[in-house]
Amino acid sequence: MLGDGILKGMAETARNFFGSYVSKERLTTVEYPEQRIPTAENARVFPFLVYDGTDWEAGMRCVACQICEKECPPKCIYIEKSADKKPDFVGKPQFYPARFDIDISVCMSCQICVEVCPFEAIKMDTQFELATDDRFGGLLEDRQKLAKSNEYYHSIHPTEAAEVDARLAEEKAKVEAKAKAAAEASAAKAAAASSPTPPAAPPAKTEGGS
Amino acid sequence: MSVVETKAERVTGWNRPPVIEPDGEGELLEVAMGPHHPSTHGVFRMDVALDGERVIRLKPVFGYLHRNHEKIAEGASYLASMPYTDRLDYFCSLTNNWAYALAVEKLAGQPVPERAEYIRVILAELTRIQNHASSIGFLIQEMGASGTPLMYAFKEREKILDLFESLTGSRMMCNYMRFGGCRVDVSAPWLDATRKVVAGLPAFVDEFEALLSSNEILMARCQGVGILRPELAVNAGVSGPMLRASGVNYDIRKVDHYGIYDRFQFRIPLGDHGDIYDRYMVRVLEMRESIRILEQALRDLPAGPIMDAKAKIRGFRPKPGEAYGRIEAPKGELGFYLISDGGPNPYRYRVRPPSLINLTVLEDMCLGHNVADVVLIFGSVDIVLGEVDR
Amino acid sequence: MKTVEEIKAAIEAAVPGAGVKFVSNPSPSAQHSLRLAPESAVAVATFLRDDAELAFDFLSNVSGVDRPDKEVAEKVKVTRTVTKTVDGPDGQKMEQPAEETVEETRKHVEPGFLEAVYHIFSVEKKHGPLVIRMRTANRSDQTELPSLTPVWRAAEFQEREVFDLYGIVFTGHPDLRRILMWPEFKDFPMRKDYVEPDDFEYEPTAHDEVLKRAEEHKSREQGSGIRDQEAAAK
Q1: Backbone phi, then psi, for C97, in 5-degree steps?
Q2: Judging by beta carbons within 10 Å of its beta carbon (0-12, 13-18, 19+), is residue B211 exposed, middle or buried?
Q3: Which of C55, C40, C43 is nearest to C7 (CA)?
Q4: B315: helix, coil or strand?
């Protein structure tokens, strides 16, 4: 009969309409902002700088190597190196950024800066409710606004942060092991220098040991 | 002076649109449909000359979204162009990424590990399903269905986009493929979630078809409207579901054997008449074939690395030369032509946009029809302005 | 599919006087191309489309490429005769011709050209791609090439785009006008020597080229934006 196809379609729509009162999966609307869907763990919005510990300036991992600035496709990062150095997480003195600006009106959330950073210093945040009415300066995030603690990083990306922490701990352990081995070797050399009967080494050679 | 005075031939063979003589007397009514138009899929204009309701002449005008992506790519490195390719066909960012990665891998001779190839196939077929569902939904909305089939399509699309977000970090601008593999590995929970979504897809396609395929209004408005003959389709460079709806058996997944598509069993749906209804049916059947490919790929996914060991992220400089790489994107043949001069940036970067080439025959299909059919025919071409204008 | 050399031989057999050159592609993709002479391009294209064995009926891609003029400096050894003053046998100074070899740097300009590159495939035989190219004589006044739209309709919009962005005039194109830029636009944006108009806006993280442009913009006086230029031109 003419109209069969339309009736079949209407039966589908009716099933969905009445079904939405009964089954949860047919009611797919989420009433934002009263209800919010939790963001996926891997979601990325805009970058932020990670710092260890409680002092955001002293604990910041960024060493101003400017790799992220070079690789950023829309060139939204602006870095100025500092004049002095501060120790990083293994104790080696490194530069730090005197200025680190990201223009989030230009940033396209591509995550390339995170991918190329060799120091795990810049990661992606998940906050997107950043609307402001200041068009030009309000969307420029400076060093202080970008600095967020490692605990915050753990709270938004737990698996990723755990992996990063494990990697950094491994690197630190390697550097410490190397330092310990070097200290042991020089201590052994000093002990050999100050021992009374050097077995086969001529005294002149070991004089300047310790 | 904008129009160049060349010796234009008024060729009216089968290669050119036919000349239609208007019926009535008086002037033709010239209507500019767009660029602000709810049915033009973006900022797109059609200068239509009407005799009453019949279309006598139709010239598409675009360029409103031209961002000169090709020139930006000449100034950026190869990796930096990858997020820009997301924004070409913004519905199908993962297939855009794959086409670009394929072209660069051809240029540099870069192999890809097996697990990465399987992941690429899974994501591309998911992209194809959500693209076909949305495009049918938009077509039906232009017919006047006020968005009901569109919202059903978007319901499934949301599930697929949630999968993309949990894997790549972003719902639409995924930036996931790299030269030599994929960026992040898939985890076991993600695969379980994908299997659940794929298990629910056949029911969705059945529901979609029950809603639409035998609908009398759809059949009356779409059958016999906007016919595209196969010889003209091939000569005009039309590709994708539009070409197959005209009966031409040409699917780049089967022709070029790129990736690992040879390992999967899937069929190619072909249309008989080349009208809008055939394009709609070809898209629905392609969704079903994509589900088959997905089930096979999820079953056979091997373990292994996802990036080639010798692939470089920074400092990638392919040797001088050129390459053209293409894939079967949901809209058609998406190709990238790259010329390298040995530096970190490409010397020439060209996108072959399927939506733009498919629009070549818009005039041919619309001539003689009513102006109400123009909207439908245009919707069945399935374009995205980000790709047309780049 | 036959190799590119075999296709070249087939073209030269079928279209006499075709002027086809083989261009090698050093990359691993091994997609070698054929350079056509503009005079016989339409005939060669028609042969490629209609031949029973090649059957290249699908034109996939038309690109423009800009090769600007290149200044080449080469060192050349030049032998010159110079007169030298030497001591003569009587103790006076004498002038004697002598030869000396000097290295000179000679500069010459290799003329640039615009190129159109076509990628064609076969839907019937399911093979491809074949790459064909055509060069213009130079970049300034002789920028015409024959249009292949009468052979493959797919070239219609793409040749318009190459005309719009590079400035190659395709003779025989049914409707050659700008496609992506607006009709009153003057320059050709994809050329390597394209200068962008000064429509600079506020940029908070300016560095590298953007910083240079910002400073150039500030140093110019008010009234140099694109709107003022257009108003001044009227």
Answers
A1: -75, 140
A2: buried
A3: C55
A4: coil
State the best of B314, B316, B349 to mutate against chain A, taking most chain A CBs within 10 Å.
Answer: B314
**Contact A136/C210, CB-based, under 8 Å?**
no
What is the CB-side half-sphere exposure of residue C223 using CA atoms within 13 A? 3
Judged by a CB distance cut-off of 8 A, whether residue B210 touches chain A is yes
* Cα→Cα distances C175→A92, B7, C155, C172, Å: 67, 10, 11, 9
What is the three-class DSSP state of C200?
A: coil
Residue A201: pLDDT above 60? no
What residue has token string 């997480």? A89
Closest CA to B162 of B153, B172, B147, B150: B172
Q: Calculate how close chain A gets to C1, using CA atoms only, in Å.
A: 40
Closest CA to B360 of C179, C169, C64: C179
Global pTM reads 0.87
| CA–CA min distance C189, chain B (Å) | 8
- 3-state DSSP assignment of residue A195: coil
* Number of Cα atoms under 13 Å in the Cβ half of residue C200: 21
Burial class (CB in 10 A: 0-12, 13-18, 19+), B30: exposed
Whole-angstrom Cα distance, residue C207 to residue B122?
Answer: 40
Say what the pLDDT of residue B7 is: 38
The Cα angle at residue B263 between residues B131 and B79, in degrees rounded to 5: 55
pLDDT at A197: 54
- The whole-angstrom separation of Cα A109 and Cα B93 is 14
Looking at chain B, which residue has its C-alpha nearest residue A26? B155
| Region for B51 from its dihedrals, namely left if φ exceeds 0, alpha if ψ lies in -120 to 50, beta otherwise | beta
DSSP per-residue letters across B87-148 = TTSTT-HHHHHHHHHHHHHHHHT----HHHHHHHHHHHHHHHHHHHHHHHHHHHIIIIITTH
Cβ atoms C120, C56 nearer than 8 A: yes
Of C202, C203, C205, the CB nearest to A77: C205
Give pLDDT, residue C209.
66
Close Cβ partners of C68 (under 8 Å, ≥ 6 residues apart): C112, C139, C191, C192, C193
Tokens of A188: 């052994």
> Would you call C210 an interface residue with chain A, using a CB distance cutoff of 8 Å?
yes
Q: pLDDT tens, A105-133?
A: 888 998 899 989 988 899 999 888 888 88
C-beta of residue B276 within 8 angstroms of C-beta of residue B226: yes
Beta pairing, strands C144-146 & C169-171 = parallel
User: What three-state secondary structure class fits C62?
Assistant: strand
Q: Do C205 and A137 count as a contact with CB atoms less than 8 A apart?
A: no
Residue C31 pLDDT greater than 60, yes or no: yes
Q: Residue B173 in contact with residue B99, Cβ under 8 Å?
A: no
Q: What is the pLDDT of residues C9-28, one digit of tens each?
A: 888 888 887 788 888 888 88
- Give the containing element (helix H, strand E) for B352: strand B348-352
Q: What value, to the nearest 5°, has the Cα angle with vertex B332 and ends B330 and B336? A: 105
| Amino acid C208: pLDDT | 65
Please state, in angstroms and rounded to a whole number, the distance separating the CA atoms of residues A144 and C183: 48
Which residues of B146-276 form beta strands (DSSP E)? 177-178, 181-182
Tell me the CB-side half-sphere exposure of residue A153, using CA atoms within 13 A. 24
- Other C-beta atoms lying within 10 Å of the C-beta of residue B74: 17
Residue pair B70/C192 in contact (Cβ under 8 Å)? The answer is no
Number of helices (H), then strands (E), in chain C? 5, 9
Q: Please answer yes or no on whether A78 and C205 come within 8 Å at the CB atom.
A: yes
- The residue of A111, A117, A160 whose CB has the most chain B CBs within 10 angstroms, and thus the best one to mutate to test that interface, is A111
Provide the ipTM: 0.88
In chain C, the N- to C-terminal Cα span, in Å, equals 57
